[in-house]
Design goal:
The complex is a heterodimer of chains A (about 110) and B (about 900). Chain A has about 110 residues and is α+β, with helices and mostly antiparallel strands. Chain A has one domain: Orthogonal Bundle (Arc Repressor Mutant, subunit A). Chain A is built from four helices and three strands, in the order αβααββα. Chain A has a three-stranded antiparallel β-sheet with strand order 1-3-2. The model of chain B has no long low-confidence stretch (mean pLDDT about 85). By secondary structure, chain B is an alpha+beta fold. In chain B, strand 2 and strand 3 form a beta hairpin. Classes of the chains: A alpha+beta (about 110), B alpha+beta (about 900). At the A-B interface, helix 2, helix 3 and strand 3 of A face helix 1, helix 2 and helix 4 of B.
Chain lengths: ~110, ~900
């Protein structure tokens, strides 16, 4: 794929999905994938299919739930929504991520 | 919490696979559709829109695979797959499946059944609190060690030990006894019971559920009319009446008041005063009476006629207690200026009860284990042959990317599937097997009533199934792991497999099988020849056509408090003997004072007035009170002198002795007319005749005997011997009515043929022999099948080679030899290994063998010959088949 695209860090995808659902409300798999692509400005080398195992993982943990519904174009699709536990989990996951990012940033800061 | 949720949802997914797959398909389809729709909206052509959508999605199959891995339990999933595959494979070869499953089921079933017996008899602790702390005390007297290594206990020594010991928490003296219990107007019956010290129940750590235990004052004369019942006796005599405490029971001609009922789970094992020769059925204990120790018993001259059970303090070991009590006994011997040196034997209760049978039972378990091992080797061979035939399949799998681990898993799971089906069936067989075992087992086997299939037994069966699966599955499984993906492509033949290595493994397996079989055959042959020796020993008596009736005179007219009780006893015996002789068809009726075939008993030291010896050197003899025709009824040869005669009634003290008594007491002398006494002040005896050494106590050994007329000292237990050409079953009714015509108030606890009594006395040996012989036969059959199977298979693989040999002019005899030679190496190697194993293993068998050396040359050569014959029989068929190959046909089939 494109040379400037980054691989998605393990675990990052989960948080992206959660944040997407938090921002957009219930959404189907394709919608989530598109949203992640748009937000990342197509900067991620992400096969759209990869989000399905991630969605299943979040479902198994009970952070999101899935229901069959109808899309805006009247197509049957599975819609994912945050659960109460999921909502709480976002905070913690965000914190985690920021800590890692902060640590990383300190490493990457020009040393003087 | 989260982990549990994930696990649950994964588990749930296992059962909804199809539904979830459909769900996923639909979801992915809708994803692509949505993407196509959006692309179309952006103005792409239909074709472009679809291509882009698919490209952006990535590999659909990969996503599905990852999704599935995430969804379920990949391990469980593949295992389930392999199990299904294994079941399909087995379904495809029903012959193999059936053979394997039945072999395993029988093997596991038999092992489980025997283990359940070993578990209940030897391993399961007794149902008392801290049963490990319970011990039985037996006294030893250094001077008598040769005659009796241990003795029952003397009450005075017990009292000394109980007060002095610091390692014992408490001890209780007791005495097993039969009690005559009469209900209503029925003839009284003899039930087993114990006379116990009041501390008995607290030593065991059990208390009655109803009522109370005995009070200390109840162990004294005149206050001992209390009785404590077991649960079953309470049900039997009082129909479980909760108000039974305080009611009375008619025991030994008097009334006893019930003061307590023991809990249902109370089960005190059977303990004999002296270690007995045979194992006879012992009716369960039903009642307990207080033991009154009379002053004449509490004396150093009193009888050693009791047993002591004790509880060791927590933290004290048996050997610590042993050394403390031994010291106390030695100190006592010195302080009391005893002529003898007392000692003690502290025996854990388990060992006391099962010590005599444990070697035999372990031997049975080892024997049946060996049979299962041989069966496993056979199965391993079968599996190996199948694995070879399926080598191409394994290679293709490997070529298609199956990991080695996965191939190993597949092969092992097939074995596990077989073993679990076999194991499950085996447990069912074991349920039946245990019943068969119980019905065949000697009725006197301790704790036999507790034998059942329990949790530990089921665990054992499960463990055994897995172990067998590994045993017979690991080699073929390892082989399948070696599958080389290339070979499948290169070799265009089904005969890839007969590699040198495969052949070697199979030979080693056959060799191992032969070794195991030989070991088992040697063990069997030893046990059989030992048993044959027991039953073919010259007995010097004839039990055939003799019926044995035990009558107990436990009622007030014969009790020692009745006036003239001796006369009453003599008159009872006289009248009964007369009555028995009048039964039509009876040719002789005699009487003796001890149960025949029940081991040595009533042993006294013989003293010669003309040649006095210190107590410890006096010959010990078994004393029997007999009637004049005892010898002729049992057909014991008279060696010298004369038989007892009715005229001896007027010449007190005339006795018969056995040849062994003559040898030990009057070595090199003629004993006829010689005098002796028992040092008991009961007068001098005169030897009037010498009879042959009849093995009336024990088939295994002769004993020194003294026979004196019953009228000189009648006993409370009388054993009538009735000779008649009629069968015992035809006589029992007449015998009963004769006895009860004389006195309806005497119980008849034993009434059976003397032959049965003789057979029962060697029931343990017969049972072991029977079981081990069947194990040996099974092993031989398995070995035969094993050799046959391997050779047949190898001949079928080498058909082409043989055809070429024949075509090139090889003789048929040479071919037969070739195959036989192939069989010879593992068979001979196995025999050598088996002999080595037998040499080591049979040394542990000494305790179960009678006058048979573990290295008995006959037993060993018979085993080898049998095994060789079986091996040759097994090899000859495939060898002839090899020789009869039609070269043209065989070459064409290729």
């Amino acid at each position: 794929m494109g040379e400037n695209k980054s691989d998605v860090l393990q675990g990052t995808l989960d948080l992206m999905v959660l944040k997407t659902l938090e921002a957009m409300g219930p959404l189907h798999g394709y919608g989530i994938a598109r949203r992640i692509e748009q937000v990342s400005d197509n900067g991620l080398s992400l096969n759209q299919g990869t989000i399905y195992p991630a969605l299943l993982r979040l479902q198994q943990r009970g952070w999101i739930r899935a229901d069959w519904g109808t899309s805006e174009t009247k197509r049957r699709a599975k819609f994912y929504a945050l659960t109460r536990i999921g909502r709480k989990q976002i905070e913690q996951e965000t914190e985690n991520w920021e800590r890692i990012a902060g640590t990383m940033a300190r490493f990457l800061a020009p040393s003087n | 919490m989260e982990l549990i949720r994930v696990l649950l949802s994964r588990c749930a997914a296992l059962f909804r696979r199809r539904k979830l797959d459909e769900d996923l398909d639909e979801e992915l389809r809708s994803h692509i559709d949505l993407a196509v729709e959006e692309n179309l909206k952006r103005g792409m052509s239909k074709q472009e829109a679809r291509t882009l959508a698919l490209r952006e999605f990535g590999g659909i199959t990969q996503v599905k695979e990852r999704f599935r891995v995430q969804r379920g339990m990949p391990f469980v999933g593949t295992v389930a797959q392999d199990v299904r595959f294994a079941l399909r494979q087995l379904h495809k070869s029903p012959g193999f499946a059936l053979t394997a499953i039945m072999t395993l089921a029988l093997g596991i079933g038999a092992n489980t059944a025997i283990f359940s017996v070993v578990n209940s008899v030897l391993l399961k602790p007794f149902g008392f609190p801290d049963p490990k702390q319970l011990v039985v005390l037996r006294e030893t007297v250094a001077e008598m060690a040769k005659v009796a290594p241990t003795l029952p206990d003397n009450p005075k020594h017990y009292l000394n030990l109980r007060t002095q010991s610091k390692t014992l928490e408490d001890a209780a003296i007791f005495q097993p006894r039969g009690f005559s219990v009469a209900v209503g107007n029925d003839h009284p019956q003899i039930v087993n019971g114990l006379q116990v010290a009041p501390s008995f129940f607290s030593v065991l750590g059990m208390q009655p559920t109803l009522g109370r235990a005995f009070r200390p004052e109840e162990a004294s004369k005149g206050h001992d009319s209390e009785v404590i019942l077991t649960w079953n006796a309470w049900q039997r005599y009082f129909q479980g009446d909760p108000n039974a405490v305080g009611r009375t029971l008619h025991i030994d001609g008097g009334e006893s008041t019930v003061v307590g009922v023991l809990p249902k789970e109370f089960s005190f094992p059977h303990v004999d005063l002296m270690p007995v020769a045979g194992q006879f059925a012992t009716p369960p204990l039903e009642l307990f009476k207080p033991l009154v120790l009379y002053p004449q018993e509490v004396s150093d001259n009193g009888d050693f006629n009791y047993l002591v059970i004790a509880r060791i303090r927590p933290g004290v070991t048996v050997s610590q207690a042993q050394s403390e009590l031994q010291g106390l006994q030695q100190a006592y011997s010195i302080a009391m200026h005893l002529q003898t040196h007392l000692g003690i034997d502290v025996i854990p209760l388990t060992q006391e009860v099962t010590g005599s049978v444990s070697a035999g039972l372990w031997l049975l378990l080892a024997g049946i284990g060996a049979v299962l091992l041989i069966a496993c080797v056979n199965l391993a061979n079968l599996q190996l042959a199948r694995a070879v035939a399926r080598e191409r399949e394994a290679s293709i799998r490997a070529a298609l990317g199956a990991g080695r681990k996965r191939l190993l898993q597949l092969a092992l799971i097939e074995s596990l599937v077989l073993a679990s089906i076999g194991g499950t069936l085996g447990v069912l067989f074991a349920l039946a097997g245990v019943r068969i075992f119980i019905s065949l087992a000697p009725a006197g086997l301790p704790r036999l009533n507790e034998v059942a299939i329990s949790w530990p037994v089921l665990l054992f069966a499960a463990g055994l199934s897995v172990a067998t699966a590994l045993l017979f599955g690991i080699l073929p499984a390892l082989r399948s792991m070696r599958a080389d993906p290339q070979s499948a492509m290169q070799v265009n033949s089904t005969r890839v497999a007969n590699t040198r290595q495969g052949k070697r493994i199979r030979s080693v397996l056959v060799g191992a099988e032969i070794a195991c079989t030989l070991l088992l055959l040697v063990v069997t042959a030893l046990v059989v020849s030992s048993f044959a020796r027991v039953v073919t020993q010259q007995r010097n008596f004839d039990s055939d056509h003799v019926t044995l009736a035990e009558v107990n005179l436990f009622n007030s007219s014969y009790g020692d408090s009745a006036p003239n009780f001796k006369a009453a006893q003599i008159s009872f015996i006289d009248r009964t003997l007369d009555g028995l002789a009048e039964i039509p068809g009876v040719t002789g009726a005699a009487v003796t004072s001890q149960m025949p075939m029940a081991g040595e008993s009533w042993i006294d030291g013989l003293t010669r007035p003309d040649h006095p010896l210190p107590e410890s050197q006096r010959p010990m003899v078994n004393v029997r009170m007999i009637s004049t025709n005892y010898r002729s009824t049992l057909e014991i040869p008279l060696l010298a002198g004369r038989d007892l005669e009715l005229s001896d009634r007027s010449h007190a003290g005339n006795v018969l002795i056995s040849a062994q008594t003559a040898r030990t007491a009057w070595p090199g002398e003629d004993p006829i007319g010689k005098h002796f006494d028992f040092g008991d002040g009961a007068g001098t005896r005169t030897v009037v005749g010498v009879v042959a050494d009849a093995r009336v106590n024990d088939l295994k050994k002769t004993a020194s005997m003294v026979y004196q007329p019953y009228w000189e000292n009648p006993r409370w237990r009388v054993y009538f011997l009735v000779r008649s050409p009629l069968a015992a079953s035809a006589l029992v009714d007449s015998i009963r009515s004769v006895v009860w015509k004389v006195d309806p108030q005497v119980p008849i606890p034993t009434l059976k043929s003397f032959d049965d009594q003789v057979n029962d006395s060697v029931a343990t040996e017969r049972f072991q022999t029977l079981l081990l012989s069947s194990f040996g036969a099974a092993a031989l059959l398995l070995a035969l099948l094993g050799v046959y199977g391997v050779l047949t298979y190898s001949v079928s693989l080498r058909q082409q080679e043989f055809s070429i040999r024949i075509a090139l002019g090889s003789g048929r005899a040479a071919l037969t030899l070739l195959v036989l030679r192939q069989a010879a190496y593992p068979v001979l190697g196995g025999i050598v290994a088996g002999l080595g194993a037998a040499f080591v293993a049979t040394r542990w068998m000494r305790s179960v063998l009678y006058e048979t050396q573990p290295a008995d040359p006959v037993a060993i050569s018979v085993s080898i010959v049998l095994l060789l014959a079986a091996a040759i029989a097994a090899a000859i068929v495939p060898a002839r088949r090899a020789a009869s190959i039609d070269p043209m046909r065989a070459l064409r089939t290729e």
